[in-house]
Amino acid sequence: NVGADDDNQSDAPPPLDSEDIALLKSYGLGPYSVPIKDIEEEIKKHQQTVKDLIGIKESDTGLSQPSQWDLVGDKQMMQEEAPLQVARCTKIIAGEEGGENGGGGDGGGGGGGGIKLCIPDR
Q1: Which residues of the chain have pLDDT under 70?
Q2: Rounded to an integer, what distance in angstroms lies between the CA atom of residue 29 and that of residue 38?
Q3: For residue 84, what is the DSSP state?
């Protein structure tokens, strides 16, 4: 049994040194992989610097950057164009009168029944 252990130890590969580890890490990489990775990291740093300097905050609202807004032109366009009529109120349905708090169906005093509905004309 002692001889079998010696055979297993002699068949074990030698431990890897730093050169072998570097060779394994570079296996399968192209000649420009390392410089490309370095440049990509540099680009990310520059993008973050630019975002910090101009104060862009990412949002899901779909609005363009404030530097691209045309507030004066938009205000002028809104003044020149006629407002669009989306609906016309033909009937107002008042809520229940005389709720728990003694009425006041106009919604001013709080309590139930202060709702008025407007039904659009189709």
Answers
A1: 1-10, 56-60, 95-122
A2: 14
A3: P
